Protein 1
Amino acid sequence: MKINSIFISNFRSLSDFSINLPQKLLIKGKTGSGKTSILESCFVVSSGRSFKTFDIKDCISKDSQNFYIESDFDDFENYSRKVSVAYDRKGNKKIIIDGNVSSRKDLLSIAYPVVHSPEDMFIITGSPKFRRDFIDRICFVEDKSYFDDMSEYIKYIRNKNAALKDKNAEVVKYLNAAAAPLIDRIRKKRNVSCETINKKVSVLLEKLFSGMKVFFTYNIDENYAEKLESRLEKELEKGFSLYGPHLDNINITTEVGNAKNNISMGETYITSFLIKLAELSIYAEKNEFPIFLIDDIFVFVDDETKKTLFKEIEVLKNQIIMSSSIENLNNFNNIEVFYLSR
Ligand SMILES: Nc1ncnc2c1ncn2[C@@H]1O[C@H](COP(=O)(O)OP(=O)(O)O)[C@@H](O)[C@H]1O
Ligand SMILES: [Mg+2]
């Protein structure tokens, strides 16, 4: 996919902004000039979500009632599309693809973005939620039915929580039993995605940073039904669900053990960046080339590492939009630079 142009209205500090986007672009500008907001708009228009906030209403400019983003892009099949995404303060969203009101699922079937921002370092150092979200995204792409599995799962948790609140043990037991095959499916798919990403990461590490090791581990209980049964009393007491895929632990292990507490800032950056490169290579095998948005590129790493990583992204077939506030970032060849002066 490739975004050819984007128009941004009332999105964060951008009230009325358009830009043509080449195959590879570096956006430079001072802190607060709006670099991240441009990348975030590209993300929103190709996914219906933000990578900065769970509540997309945060993106609406302070004094506005709604934001609107419109873009011309080539989708994965190379069809040119006109897509717009709008949100208002009441939470109404409108995704329009080629004049037709569409869903997020429709959008994700023709395009999706991959982003790396410094916040992605939380995949390594943050709570398991960050790792679950990362693995879930790969599951979505690897198997489109995962989207429906997850929607069904969320519905199950909602119903279960309502029953737990009512202290209705019989309904909870019934819901648990009905959800068992779904839960099994979700966990198996996640396991497959962990294995797939581990393979890709190890290929990259061998090539670029030999000696480093990084892998995801997902420990699933064999006796799931028993576990659920044993938690029921506690769940009824608390009034909400305490166990299941939405709370599962996924770890990242490196050569020094659990990555969470043992690696430096620079290593954390490298690791989170490599994970995203590995993700892209999974999609490339499916002949899908999402746009790759890299916010605050190469903060926290030394010049040698910058060169190593840059060589990897330079050859990617994906469209890449990068941002940096570093004045003397070693100039990359073949990369257009846009100076954001605001
Ligand atoms: N909802 C909003 N309304 C108005 N301004 C906002 C909103 N959200 C963020 N901003 C402001 O937008 C500016 C640009 O932010 P950002 O895109 O992150 O800049 P950069 O990445 O160049 O440092 C910041 O000064 C921020 O405070
Ligand atoms: Mg920024």
Note: Residues 5 and 20 are 4 Å apart (CA to CA).
Protein 2
Amino acid sequence: MRTLLKNGRILDPSQDLDEVSSLLLEDDQIVGYGREFENVEVDETYDCTGMWICPGLVDPHVHLREPGGEEKETIITGTQAAAAGGYTTICCMPNTNPPLDSPALIDFILDRAASPEAGGVFVAPVGALTKGMKGEELADLAAMKKAGIIAASDEQFPIQNALVMSQAMEFCVQLDLPIMAHCEDTNLTRGGSMNEGSISAMLGLRGIPRSAEEIAIVRNCLLSLHTGCQLHIMRVSTWGAVEMIRQAKFLGAPVTCEICPMHFTFIEDHVGEFDTRFKILPPLRTQVDIDLIVQALADGTIDCIASDHSPHASHEVDVPFEEAPFGSAQLESAVGVTLTMLTHKGVLSPLETINKLSTKPAEILRLEAGTLKPGETPVAQICVIDPDCEWTFDRHKTFSKSKNTPFDGMNLKGKTMLTFSGSEIYRDALFPDSRYTLS
Ligand SMILES: [Zn+2]
């Protein structure tokens, strides 16, 4: 069966490609792109005029909550939400219950993700770095790597002991396994729920100082520099953090980092009247931080954009601010928010935007993804985006089980229209039927 994605702007950072053309698929594989394919006899045609045809998006940082948190999200609902967001590969975090610290649990995740009810998205599991994510004894990383983990992380329970982290890095060098690190000195943050500053003081909330993040980043970057361990720093939030990472890269440390949309969109003021949708870790900071973060996105210091999709059930967030969990649902808003806040404001070109959302995270975590080159992904992984579609984000029209999101009601410009993973796994209701013809 042949499928033609016709007359779109093909954006593929892996080939430095930005041109209006058509992309041909034969069964579940990409054949190639070119105007000549428009004359080939095909079984179905998608008219992509005015749209971007990109490699399927890659999210390095997603919480699927299964096992143990099925009231928040499941592997099935989470992968469906990912497909609706344009993602074809997502990395799932190990802070489940129990934590993903054994090969049996990795097998479970991969089996569930491959089930027919799931969204058709590739799930790349991240294993726990230490047993039970307790920060003491290393988990069985070699066995988990054989089972399919692509990195190791203790996520929101970062290793506090520098000796343990140093040993973890030395071991991961031998295994050729990247470490993903949420950087936080928990002695400085305990009990905190928002950025430390005048607003936390006014609201009477315990603050989370920026130094808690920056100290942990400096330590981890130095350990990475001296051990040679590949380190990916998760969701940076302060200008100081960005400067530390810039310096580490300058010194030659194998360090990369990500940002999530909330940290380039909102500031501490948005917490307003104790709005738990704006509670995130690390916390929302200030406009000065956003201004420098935007520069760092443009100059490449910040390598990629992760959703940090952190779904919670509504009863968990309908509580006083201090008691609410950190994080919110993000997979289905990330493209719209990124285009609205960065691309349409001229911070990132369309090609750079897709690089941060697809090709670069795939390269960092060595995933077979993030490219439209024939044969370089297991099946054709494609995302079609209408960059000019103006819409209002409505949490009730999402696939995620979690309806807790700060982007609800926000006007966005740019929307995922189609997602392919071998075949079509998502088509947006706004994609006009007249643009899709079975010939
Ligand atoms: Zn996370």
Note: The first strand starts at residue 2 and ends at 12.
